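1st attempt posting a full record on here, be nice pls
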Amino acid sequence: MRRVETSIEIHQPASAVFDAFVEPPVLKKWWGVESCLIEKKQGGLYSLAWETCPKGYHYVSTGIITVFIPGRELLIDHFVYFNPEKQILGPTYLSLKIEEANGNTQLHLVQGGYQQGGDWDWFYESVRDAWPKVLQDLKKFLNG
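the predicted structure (as tokens):
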């Protein structure tokens, strides 16, 4: 199966980079997440929603945290994407590995499990294009 892989170096402590993915107020500020439910533990729920509308949310990503090591690693498995214009896409996985050295933090992100054809091709191409840009936004936000 296909996967998207990207890395970035950020001049911030590893804890700040990790928290950007698990702390609701921080997620709202840098990624525009409008609502989320994150149980910060192995086996916890990880759900993010964007674009509130009268009938709910326009985009939702949700999964189960299978690895939760603050400041070092986050793995969200059974990751499913809901978009009203597409079929339900999943499960995929999202892996974040974080290493701090000399005042800088290296973030390595992998999202995988993409199938072939139809909406899956659209999803893969969208994510492949988006993650490098999203991580640049994170870097700008954290380095403020």
